[in-house]
Structures are given as C-alpha cells and as structure tokens.
Design a protein that fits this description.
coiled coil
Length: about 230
C-alpha cells in the first residue's frame, strides 16, 4: 500500500518525538526502518539524518572509529592498505625518533645549563665566603681604629686639660714676675735713697741734685742710661 505525503510527514514527526522522549537509546540499536512501496514525493528526512549522525558519533567515541571507516577500508586494496599502514608506521617511528632526539638534546642542554648554574653557584658561594672574611677583617680593623681614635681623643682631652693648667701656671708666673720686678725696683730705689742719705751725712756740702737711679757714670760724668 502506497503512503501519501501526509502519512510520511506524520511518520517523520513520530520518529522525531521518539528521539526526544528516549535519549538513552543504545548506540548499537539499528535505526528504524521505513518501508516505502511507492515514491510519490521527497519526504522530510532531516530528523533521521541527525539521528544517524548522532549514533555514528556515539559509536565512534566507544570504538575509536566510525562505522563508515570499516566500509571505506573494505573497499580498498589489501596491499595498498598494508603499504599505507607501513608508511604511516614509518612516519610515526621517524617522528618518535625525531622527538626523542629533540628530547635528548633538550635534556643535554638542560644538564649543561644546570651544571653551569651549579658552577656559578659554587663560585658565587666561594666569592661570598671570601667577601665575608674580608668584611670581618675590615670590621676588626675598623674596631681597632675606633678604639685607637677613642684613645687619642682621651689623650687629646688630657693634653688640653694640661694645657689649660700650664696656661694658668704661666699667668701665675707672669703675675709673680711682675710682682718681683716691682719689688726689685722698690728695693733698688730704697737702696739708692739710702746711699744718697749716707753721702749727705758724709759730705753735707755735696750737690746731689743731678743724681738719679736711672743714670750711669760714663767717663766721670752722670749720663742717662739707655733703656
């Protein structure tokens, strides 16, 4: 019995509803069959196409290949297929060797870089140790210099105190010297006056007015003494 265009559309809608209401359909279940005894017009097969594609993807995810891949392999020549597989294996092996060479090269470079870094680290540690020792020695020297400077500063303070003491002593000596000079001058004046008094007693007629303690006798005459 031939199906009309309306019947085929109804059947397609029913299949679409079955797809939306039963999402957990097994991927291995065969697709629904539509028996068409007489083709009257083009039916709407888009829902069926989407369903077949969805099932094909599920099958590929499960078995790691698609169903139509098997059909394609069956149509190819066995020798050609074998040669193609060998060529692909050779490419994979060559790629594997190339990747291993690159990996070994990178490993060697990494080892070389690591060795250089270790050597640089050892040199840096050695230099750091040397600099630390030098800093410690310089610190001790600076400490000794500071102690010496403090000692010299104390000595300077002591010398300044002694200087002040000597300055005071000098002032005292100068004052004493002036007093002694005054005393000596007074003693000389007193002695000169005593001598004049004695001369007046011995020679009352003698003229003693030209006499002066500041004069000297030169060639039998009294002259002013040079300062």
């Amino acid at each position: 019995m031939a199906m009309s265009h309306e019947d085929m559309l109804k059947r397609a809608r029913q299949l679409k509803k079955q797809k939306t209401t039963t999402p957990d359909t097994s991927p291995s279940a065969p697709p629904p069959r539509i028996e068409l005894h007489e083709e009257t017009s083009e039916p709407d097969l888009e829902p069926l196409t989407r369903k077949f594609k969805s099932r094909g993807k599920k099958h590929g995810r499960k078995h790691n290949y698609l169903r139509h891949d098997v059909n394609l392999l069956r149509t190819q020549d066995l020798k050609t297929l074998h040669e193609s597989i060998l060529a692909n294996l050779h490419k994979a092996e060559a790629s594997n060797f190339m990747l291993m060479d690159q990996f070994n090269l990178l490993s060697t470079q990494k080892s070389f870089d690591s060795e250089q870094k270790e050597q640089a680290l050892v040199l840096s540690q050695t230099e750091t140790s040397r600099l630390t020792t030098e800093v410690a020695e310089l610190t001790n020297q600076v400490k000794k210099k500071d102690e010496l400077l403090a000692d010299l500063h104390n000595q300077l303070k002591t010398l300044e105190a002694e200087k002040k003491s000597w300055v005071l002593k000098e002032k005292d000596l100068l004052n004493s010297s002036e007093l002694l000079k005054d005393q000596i001058g007074s003693s000389l004046n007193m002695g000169f006056q005593l001598a004049l008094d004695q001369v007046c007693v011995l020679c009352p007629d003698a003229d003693l007015s030209p006499t002066d303690i500041s004069k000297s006798v030169v060639n039998g005459q009294l002259v002013d003494a040079d300062d």
